[in-house]
Design goal:
The chain is an all-alpha fold and 87 residues long. 87% of the residues lie in helices and 0% in strands. α1 packs across α3 and α3 runs antiparallel to α4.
Amino acid sequence: MKSRNKALIEQRVIDSANYLIENNSTVRETARKFGVSKSTTHKDLVVRLKDINLNLYEDVSVILEVNWEEKNLRGGLATKEKFESMK
């Protein structure tokens, strides 16, 4: 029988994965939604999810890979917007 805490963590992992997929969100956005740290959310989606639901893990991995590839572009756009707003 699973402990209550372990069941709560597993549910959070599944909910986070579903949110990320449904909203095509980032780890940071997902963490904010569930009120946990970015590190916890990343561990949930990369480490824990693999043991809980492999199919969901594979779907999440695709989105995380796209986010990783777009990371520098997003940062560049944010910097550009910041300096444009300062003009």
